[in-house]
Amino acid sequence: MKFDATIMKHAFEGRSVILYDGYCIFCTASAKRLQRWGRRDQIEIRSFQENGVLDEYPSISYQAAMKEMHVVSPEGVIYKGAEAVVRVLATRRIAGWLAYAYYLPGLHQLIDATYRTIAKNRYRILGRTGVVCDEGTCHLHTGEASDQEREPLRDRIEPG
User: Fold this and answer.
1) Which fold has domain 2-134?
2) I need a labelling partner for 79 at 20 to 30 A (CA). Which of 27, 66, 85, 140 fits?
3) 19 backbone φψ class: left, alpha, beta (φ>0; ψ -120 to 50)
4) Beta-carbon neighbour count of residue 29 at 10 Å?
5) CA 62 to chain centre
6) Given this model, what pLDDT does residue 131 score?
């Protein structure tokens, strides 16, 4: 968790913002589900794959966003991974009390490890949207690519 004052102007009218991988079917479904499980009036979901979204959050790199989901609170605090999920669930009273069990010693390490495993294999779980595969980048997220190929695609595309 870290605070970034530069993103305060991008808070959505007092809402937390979930930044998810819009090219990932599992991630898209999970972000929508989290929005329903949390308080919809307090949560905005945005795909970081959309042009310009990450420009609004300069302290979140493309590589970091590809690694795990991020939630930006209205106060500018950034939560990532399993803790981001907990923060969304905490917007509900009953779920909030259960979500805080995450912070019990030992339990959060187990939950974090489970989250990392799922995040690393998210494209294998339900697949990818046609956008990524149409651009020929499916192998970038399944462990079959070289480090150079893993650079963000958008950085390698020449302006038209």
Assistant:
1) Glutaredoxin (3.40.30)
2) 140
3) beta
4) 13
5) 11
6) 52
The whole-angstrom separation of Cα 75 and Cα 64 is: 20
Longest dimension (CA), the chain: 52
* H or E stretch covering 19: strand 16-20
Both tokens of residue 94? 């009953």
Using the predicted structure, report yes or no on whether residue 146 has a pLDDT greater than 70.
no
Residue 108 has pLDDT above 70, yes or no: yes
d(CA 1, CA 81): 10
- Where do the domains of the chain lie? 2-134
7 vs 46, higher pLDDT: 46
Total length of the chain: 160
The whole-angstrom separation of Cα 70 and Cα 62 is 11
pTM of the model: 0.71
> Cα–Cα distance between 27 and 118 in angstroms, integer?
10
